[in-house]
């Protein structure tokens, strides 16, 4: 299980309001037509910093299959623009409360990490959903000897995202492959409020989609696709 060590992360809670302010400024610049790859990468870092520093969950009931189908469907397309082959598989269907933003951040960081450090530019995501838990497994082929900085911003954000969903993130090595596994509980109680999960095209059509921001380091999206 990966543990976040706040003493070794160069962030503090006082930076969160500043992070949101910077995001608003960047949004305004985007709206006026100013765009660069660096802008998206900066927003990605801010989003990860905010996720690392979050301590309270915001649970919303949604269809877990539809949630994963929307995120992964868009992720496959965005990763492909950067020359990465992302394959996905989702089994099972259940409606349960989950911190949607935290889960999305966790999943995108794991996908980004797997693609960037893959020996063959390929990564795979398996999601298994049953009546009491959901398991997410993200695997890639190693380039060489595996090294991990557990205090890197992306890994910290992924681990905190799992915790905010009341789960945990673990790492496994198997031969020439590495896998990050998140095991998250599924609540069998009926929720009063249901939030429809976004479809893939909704993520792709939104120029401020968390998918474009979260996968900006492995994508090559032309300005026209995002802003026109």
Mean pLDDT: 83
Q: Strand arrangement, largest sheet?
A: 2-4-5-7-6
User: What share of residues are in beta strands?
Assistant: 15-25%
Number of strands: 7
Low-confidence stretches: 1-12
Please state the structural category: alpha+beta
Report the radius of gyration as a whole number of Å: 17 Å
Principal-axis shape equals globular
Count of alpha/pi helices = 8
What order do the SSEs take from the amino end to the carboxyl end, as H and E? HHEHEEHEEHEEHHH
Q: Report the sheet with the most strands, covering strand number, pairing sense and barrel closure.
A: 5 strands, mixed
Helix residue percentage: 40-55%
Distance between the termini: 43 Å
Features:
8 helices, 43% helix, 21% strand, 228 residues, globular, disordered N terminus, alpha+beta, 5-stranded mixed β-sheet
Please give a structural write-up.
- The structure is a single chain.
- This protein has 228 residues and is of the alpha+beta class.
- 43% of the residues lie in helices and 21% in strands.
- The protein is built from eight helices and seven strands.
- The protein has helices at 15-31, 37-53, 64-81, 100-116, 153-164, 200-205, 210-214, 223-227; strands spanning 60-63, 85-91, 95-98, 122-129, 133-141, 168-174, 177-185.
- A five-stranded mixed sheet has the order 2-4-5-7-6. Strands 1-3 form a two-stranded antiparallel sheet.
- A hairpin with a 2-residue loop joins strand 6 (168-174) and strand 7 (177-185).
- The longest helix is centred in the first third of the chain and has 18 residues, at 64-81.
- The chain starts with 14 loop residues before the first helix and ends with a helix.
- Mean pLDDT is 83; it is low at 1-12.
